[in-house]
Amino acid sequence: TQPVSTDAAAVKAADRAHVFHSWSAQGLIDPFVVAGAEGSYFWDHDGNRHLDFSSQLVNTNIGHQHPKVVAAIQEQAARLCTIAPGFAVDVRSEAARLIAGRTPGDLDRIFFTNGGAEAVENAVRMARLHTGRPKVLSAYRSYHGATAAAINLTGDPRRWPSDTASAGVVRFWGPFRYRSPFHAETEEQECERALRHLEDTIVFEGPGTIAAVILETVPGTAGIMVPPPGYLPGVRALCDRYGIVLILDEVMAGFGRTGRWFAADHFGVVPDLLTFAKGVNSGYVPLGGVAISAEIAATFEERPYPGGLTYSGHPLACASAVATINAMAEEGIVENAARVGEDVLGPGLRELAERHPSVGDVRGLGVFWAVELVRDRRTREPLVPYAATGEANAPMAAVTATIKAAGVWPFVNMNRVHVVPPCTITEAEAKAGLAALDEALTVADRYAA
Ligand code: PLP
């Protein structure tokens, strides 16, 4: 049932008067007023539904209002709403046990945070203390969060206004076949050249100065570039050779998004630290964390870890994580993400690419796909320039508006539409979303050669 209420105007008015929105020019936004959500849909006060092809910010992996998770939060609220991080408490222990049981290798200790950026901050702090080295290497075309270290590690334009040259961050290029920074012709060349470039960077920066390499296992917001099979094992080997901590950021790619519990599972790579958030509890209550290897955990056996948060391992967040992970296991939600990717999204997007000249590339896995739009398939000129705003971004704004008008809410970044529905999406819903995208691509085609 979809509640219909008439106070949408009051909600909007109070929002515009008092809510300061992220990443926005406050005077230029017109937020959609949401009245409710369930499963793969959310709706406004007039009952107009949108199929959520964005999973909000790629976090509602089990869809909206999963009844088992809602019940777990309600039960936990009635039992114990909050308790300081220094106490041991059943839901926190169980959440850590369930997460550690799924993270790769020996990543068996969990430090809880309130979200992804804090997870990255703490992973970097652990790596620096563990190695006694100052620098961290991160990739261009990446996003790691909006707090101090995390935004400096980020390799997209959102970093530019907050960049502080003293942050100890050195950036390198990761592999990306479609827009190869190495001008490679094949996947093998791309992999080999990307690894050589990373090793050159390490050697010229001075291996003894580098605490960590941080990478999104599959870069998300920056374009869902699935790395060639040999890349991450190659990075692991370089980190081992030079005594560098490997941090895999699975805030977006983790917890089922790629059709496996963690994206690292596709590549057989075990990092030293793994950051997570979003899908761990689908964001029903803010939660993130760092999964820590035995070796790094040992650094803090006798020596205190100099970091903490009032809400680390918050009971409501942990109760929702326990219920989410159990529901994902019981209901085969990770397997569903893999199946929908293989049977519907992959073939459906490739079919759209054949028919629409504006589609330069489609790539992804599970329920984690990017459609890259171009003006010219031959030159690969993007539909809008890198970091375009205002008039320069008009073609993408038109594409976005068309998908929304068809009742589907996309995740759009630069010249790309990301197809990132919940892991619970049905085949019929996925096909309905692709039909809306098909319609929007005819708008993109008008700008394409
Ligand atoms: N790391 C990655 C890979 C992300 O995609 C994000 C958010 O999109 C973050 C970190 C930051 O997470 P949060 O917004 O929860 O701080």
Automatic annotation (TrEMBL):
GO molecular function: pyridoxal phosphate binding; transaminase activity
CDD domains per record: OAT_like
GO CC terms, sorted: cytosol
InterPro entries listed in its UniProt record: Aminotrans_3, Aminotrans_3_PPA_site, PyrdxlP-dep_Trfase, PyrdxlP-dep_Trfase_major, PyrdxlP-dep_Trfase_small
Superkingdom as given in the UniProt entry: Bacteria
TM ranges: none
Record's keyword terms, sorted: Aminotransferase, Pyridoxal phosphate, Transferase
Family of this protein: Belongs to the class-III pyridoxal-phosphate-dependent aminotransferase family.
Protein name from the UniProt record: Aspartate aminotransferase family protein
Organism lineage string: Bacteria, Bacillati, Actinomycetota, Actinomycetes, Kitasatosporales
